[in-house]
Automatic annotation (TrEMBL):
This is RNA polymerase sigma factor. Keywords: Sigma factor, Transcription, Transcription regulation. SUPFAM superfamilies: Sigma2 domain of RNA polymerase sigma factors (SSF88946), Sigma3 and sigma4 domains of RNA polymerase sigma factors (SSF88659). Residues 199-299 form the DUF6596 domain. InterPro entries: DUF6596, RNA_pol_sigma-70_dom, RNA_pol_sigma70_r2, RNA_pol_sigma70_r4_t2, RNA_pol_sigma_r2, RNA_pol_sigma_r3/r4-like, WH-like_DNA-bd_sf. Coiled coil: none annotated.
Length: 433
């Protein structure tokens, strides 16, 4: 099972190998066990036991040639032992027998079983896991929590910290989600082909929410929560692998990678927000931008344009501009117009107003912002008065701008946003003296 010389690895090397295996194999191992036991808690606990066992034995015995197969076999054996001890009826005994039948196979056979194609032609249990976690019958917050726990492998305290809720609250959310899956008999499956587009949208919305919360936190001390953003990108890559050629999957991955490319320039050394036009573009990751452009080209070639592709196209226009002044704002405004047609949203309309202001002047943008304010659809959203304030400042109407900045400051929850708005407020007040 171990490669030649594997036992010579240091403990640090083995620990690194375990961490790498966790990122690469957690979802597959959990998915494999759930598929065979239909017991989510058992699957997660046995997967955790397998990784704990690896931390004990790999530094001593060496890293296996096939870490994923080793971990799958170890987790499966652990599940067999648990089921045998807990067996109180025919069903538990049947599950133990089914798992035991494969427990004597070597690691290569275990890997083959774990990746075997199912009758529905889906080559990976992870896809069933993702779609089950994001089933429409589950509340949206439960989908997010369950995806982070089961697919990504985050611990409950980590998820609770990420969304600034008590650990007990998040634990209960996870318990309720699993209970709902059991009680509602939610099938552990990928939907039929004709249902796939609608259900894929539900999955993508979870991934996008995770990314947005990591990219621009809605509250708390930090603007960027790197762990959430990184895990969302990893989920996006997993979906692109499992649903090859799906244009909206590619579009979302392109969008996230483009935003990722600018991440290092979005905050200064103090952790404060840096507006797009003030960012040091030499700090943008050009390799990430190039990857995103390739993904977007691949998605658009399918000729089934959706909202994530349009958002990725908008982000790409920003990313390829050499300077802020070279940005094609007219194209961005047009893309936002099309996005508003496909996915009506007041937030999209607000972003279009900014693009119109940049291409046709602040007065034109301010008119659109006023229409949004009159509609009341963004009441309580701090970026609405913040946008109004910025346009008024550009028009030289500093007293009105100060009032709008103060309104935005009252609504903002994230500390970096509040510091930025407070600075802008001081600037317009000083300019007006």
């Amino acid at each position: 099972m171990h490669g030649n010389g594997a036992a010579g690895r240091t403990g640090g090397d083995a620990a690194t190998a375990v961490a790498e295996a966790f990122r690469a194999e957690w979802a597959q191992i959990v998915a494999t066990l759930i598929a065979r036991t239909r017991d989510w808690d058992l699957a997660e606990e046995c997967a955790q036991d397998a990784f704990a066992r690896a931390l004990e034995t790999w530094p001593r015995d060496g890293v296996p040639d096939r870490p994923g197969a080793w971990l799958t076999t170890t987790a499966r054996n652990r599940a067999v032992d648990r089921l045998r001890r807990e067996a109180v009826g025919a069903e538990k005994m049947r599950q133990a027998a089914e798992l035991s039948a494969g427990a004597d196979a070597d690691a290569a056979d275990a890997a083959a079983v774990a990746h075997a194609a199912a009758e529905d032609g889906v080559p990976d249990d992870r896809l069933r896991l993702v779609f089950t976690c994001c089933h429409p019958q589950l509340p949206f917050e439960a989908r997010v929590a369950l995806t982070l726990r089961t697919v990504v492998g985050l611990e409950t305290p980590e998820i609770a910290r990420a969304f600034l809720v008590p650990e007990a609250t998040m634990a209960q959310r996870l318990v309720r989600a699993k209970r709902r899956i059991r009680d509602a008999r939610i099938p552990y499956e990928v939907p039929a082909r004709e249902e796939l587009p609608r259900r894929t949208d539900a999955v993508l919305s979870v991934v996008y929410l995770l990314y947005n919360e990591g990219y621009s936190a809605t509250s708390g001390a930090d603007l960027i929560r790197r762990r959430l953003g990184d895990e969302a990108v990893r989920l996006g890559r997993l979906l692109a692998e499992l649903l090859p050629g799906e244009p909206e999957v590619l579009g979302l991955l392109a969008l996230m990678r483009t935003h990722d490319a600018r991440r290092a320039a979005r905050v200064d050394e103090a952790g404060d927000f840096v507006p797009l036009e003030e960012q040091d573009r030499s700090r943008w990751d050009r390799e990430a931008i190039a990857e995103a452009s390739r993904l977007l080209d691949e998605a658009v070639a399918v000729e089934r344009v959706g909202p994530y592709q349009l958002q990725a196209a908008i982000a790409n226009v920003h990313a390829v501009a050499g300077t802020a002044a070279e940005t094609d704002w007219a194209l961005i405004a047009a893309l936002y117009g099309r996005l508003a047609e496909t996915t009506p949203s007041p937030v999209i309309e607000l972003n279009r107003a900014v693009a119109v202001a940049m291409s046709a002047g602040p007065a034109a943008g301010l008119e659109l912002v006023s229409q949004l304010e009159e509609s009341g659809r963004l009441a309580g959203y701090h970026l609405l008065p913040a946008t109004r304030a910025d346009l008024l400042r550009r028009l030289g109407r500093r007293d009105e701008a100060a009032i709008a900045y103060a309104q935005a400051l009252d609504l903002a929850r994230a500390e970096p946003d509040r510091r930025y708005l407070a600075r802008r407020l001081r600037e317009v007040e000083e300019e007006g003296r």
